[in-house]
Amino acid sequence: MRSGGSGARLERVSWLDEHIDVDRPRWKQLILDDGALPWTGVALGLAVLWVLLFLAEIQSPNWLYWSGQTVQGTNEGGIVFYRVHGQTYTIDDPAPAPAHPTPETVWYKPGMPDHALLDRPARLVEAGVFATLAGASVITFGVGVTRGELSRRRRSVLPLPQGSASA
């Protein structure tokens, strides 16, 4: 409680108004609140990790899985033959050679068809890692903002701590 000067009128001031800068923008209150800060920190860390992995991925040969084009090839004795714009190219298949010709999906660089990769399950694992990190970052951020808002609301309805009232 604050006294209104020399008059006897007292007005109730919430604990939140005394301890939180109410002039901060709403988004800063949600993100930097005590209940949200650990969660938003973890979300930021996951987002930074995602960006670093993305930057590493675009420099790796596996980037063809995301930026390349596909064509059907034929695996004959451990060598995959594929055609792009009427020209035949080959790529070695490190897997055991099949007994008879089998179809294979080949990813190639659009301007350089001789730079190619065979379609492998590792592509799906990479996609899963990227999606999991992005999803975990978004979910963790959402949990943090929600916890911060709930914490803020809880504090605003709690009674004033002992000794905070002045006469």
Quick structural summary:
By secondary structure, this protein is of the alpha+beta class. The protein has helices spanning 15-19, 26-32, 37-58, 64-67, 122-157; strands spanning 2-3, 10-11, 69-76, 79-84, 87-92, 102-109, 112-118.
Description:
Helices cover 44% and strands 23% of the residues. The chain is of the alpha+beta class and 167 residues long. The strands form 2 sheets. It has a 5-stranded antiparallel sheet with strand order 5-4-3-6-7.
Question: What labels describe this entry?
Answer:
single chain; 167 residues; 2 domains; five-stranded antiparallel sheet; 23% strand; rod-shaped
Secondary structure layout plus pairing:
Elements: E1 2-3, E2 10-11, H1 15-19, H2 26-32, H3 37-58, H4 64-67, E3 69-76, E4 79-84, E5 87-92, E6 102-109, E7 112-118, H5 122-157
Antiparallel strand pairs: 1-2, 3-4, 3-6, 4-5, 6-7
